[in-house]
TrEMBL record:
Native species: Oryza sativa subsp. japonica (Rice)
Record PROSITE patterns: PECTINESTERASE_2 (PS00503)
Protein's UniProt name: Pectinesterase
InterPro entries: Pectin_lyas_fold, Pectin_lyase_fold/virulence, Pectinesterase_Asp_AS, Pectinesterase_cat
Described function: Acts in the modification of cell walls via demethylesterification of cell wall pectin.
């Protein structure tokens, strides 16, 4: 039985559930001990030259390629206008505060090399950083592409217009993050849990933006996006839908989430292909706010029961009990 992540999950914890919780706590304590035993190297990046490196990429390039010791890269406040590619596992990037530590680039999405930041290796962690693509509203422009397994983001901001966050492949966890864009701004075929995040749509009135475009392409893929305890806002009433299927088996769930009136009553659309209605899985569970009402939703979306929502609303959705601390 998955353990509730939040106090707000109103299911009374029965004794077998408590036993499971105790077990999980002991397992995670064990994991923390291993983690502490693992050496980690801390380096600083400072554009003024007072750190170990001036550029973030130089710090990544200097990290060991192939072992499981973690390299923690502390980034001093500033706007770092360079692309960053994380091609080694166990890299942590830490800013001072997300608003003061910004990684920015200006390039539309023309190739895999276009995003401001590309995470290609596993076990990546980012804290208190802003990832931005300043290209603007004339074409898709990716701020971060996450293509490594077991990536976690804490207190980060992702800012662009179209296609901001390419959550492409692997298991990912976002906590306390802010994601901004006008359409399809969280997209790709990852398996991700967004925990207490704020999604802000900048879709103009009438443009019909979509918060998500998840890409799951077959029933056998274990991918999908789950949003728990999040907040959805936008520029006006009815500017955006919750999602549309980039792949036919697209899967997205919103649980315990505030939706402002920016969310259209219909909630979802089939992206012009009615056959997607049979294969996509879109649901919501105990959401609130003017945009959350389910009576106007497309008939093929789901108002989930507690049992149906359960697999999506804990860290188990991304196997977090194995790798999140
Ligand atoms: C990394 O490890 C693999 C397998 O252990 C090895 O084949 C490869 O050469 C190593 N690469 C580097 C850069 O050390
Ligand atoms: C981004 O680049 C384009 C040209 O590729 C340019 O027209 C635009 O002004 C740039 N935007 C910013 C914010 O630098």
């Amino acid at each position: 039985m998955p353990m509730p992540l939040y106090g707000v999950v109103n299911s009374p914890c029965r004794s077998h559930c408590r036993a499971a919780a105790t077990l999980l706590v002991s397992v995670s304590l064990l994991c923390s001990c291993f983690a502490i035993a693992m050496p980690s190297v801390v380096v600083t990046v400072d554009q003024s030259g007072k750190g170990d490196h001036r550029r973030i990429q130089d710090a990544i390039d200097a990290a060991p390629a192939n072992d499981s010791s973690r390299t923690v890269i502390r980034i001093k406040p500033g706007v770092y206008r360079r692309k960053v590619v994380v091609d080694k596992p166990y890299v942590t990037l830490t800013g001072t505060s997300a608003t003061s530590t910004v990684i920015a680039w200006n390039e539309s999405w023309v190739s895999d090399e276009s995003p401001t930041v590309s995470v290609l290796a596993s076990d990546f962690v980012a804290k208190r950083l802003t990832f931005q693509n300043t290209f603007g509203d004339s074409a898709p422009a990716v701020a971060v592409r996450v293509a490594g397994d077991r990536a976690a983001f804490y207190g980060c901001r992702f800012v662009s217009f179209q296609d901001t966050l390419l959550d492409e492949t692997g298991r990912h966890y976002y906590r306390g993050c802010y994601v901004q864009g006008a359409t399809d701004f969280i997209f790709g075929n990852g398996r991700a849990l967004f925990d207490k995040c704020h999604l802000h749509s900048t879709s103009p009135d009438g443009a019909g933006g979509a918060f998500t475009a998840q890409q799951r392409s077959s029933e056998s893929e274990e991918t999908g996006y789950s949003f728990v305890g999040c907040k959805l806002t936008g520029l006006g009433a009815g500017t955006s839908i919750l999602g549309r299927p980039w792949g036919p088996y697209s899967r997205v769930v919103f649980a315990l989430t505030y939706m402002s009136s920016t969310v259209r009553p219909q909630g979802w659309d089939d992206w012009g292909d009615p056959s997607n209605q049979r294969t996509a899985f879109y649901g919501q569970y105990q959401c609130y706010g003017d945009g959350s009402k389910t009576d106007g939703r497309v008939a093929w979306s789901h108002d989930l029961t507690q049992a149906e929502a359960a697999p999506f609303i804990t860290k188990a959705w991304v196997d977090g009990q194995q790798w999140l601390r």
